[in-house]
Amino acid sequence: WRFTTSTELDLESGGISRTESTHHFTKVEADFNDDGKIDFACNAISTSFSGEGLIVRLSDGEEFKWLILNEIDRGAHHPNVGLDMGIDLVKPGKILTACGKGYSECGIDEPEELDLKVPSILYFKLESASSIFYWDRSTESFAHIPISV
């Protein structure tokens, strides 16, 4: 994985200007797992396939490890494509999920509302669907839930 270059980053993609964010909606920092250490999340370009991913440098209290939360592989027929997805920071608090907003029926384990205790990652396609990656204390891992479709 590697960081994006300026040519891969379309600053006016999808009707929203990436210039509205100091990091162009490509990286955020916060304590995602509530261990007292600042973690780092970013959209990155794959060095092994034509695509991008959401990766996180997460502390376990002692060391940092890299996690891949999402990958988008566009296939060999789409080489050298730019970054489609954006990320932003979600502050702790109550957030309605996609099913809580009435976009779909809630699944068995899908809540209508999240009560976030720590900062989380908003993951979105500009002018399209969005979701949240949040730390689930019960599983000690990231969980993922749509908030719009």
Folded structure, characterized:
This protein is mainly β. 0% of the residues lie in helices and 44% in strands. It has strands spanning 27-30, 39-45, 51-59, 64-73, 85-90, 93-96, 113-116, 120-125, 130-136, 141-148. Strands 1-2-3-4 form a four-stranded antiparallel sheet, with no helix packed on it. The chain is globular, with a radius of gyration of 16 Å.
Give the % helix.
under 10%
Taking the sheet with the most strands, its summary is: 4 strands, antiparallel
- The beta-strand count equals 10
Mean pLDDT: 88
Can you list the strand order of the major beta sheet? 1-2-3-4
Q: Which structural class do you get from the secondary structure elements?
A: mainly beta
End-to-end Cα distance = 28 Å
- The low-pLDDT segments are 11-15
Strand content: 35-45%
Shape: globular
Q: What Rg, in angstroms, do the CA atoms define?
A: 16 Å
Order of helices and strands: EEEEEEEEEE
Number of helices: 0
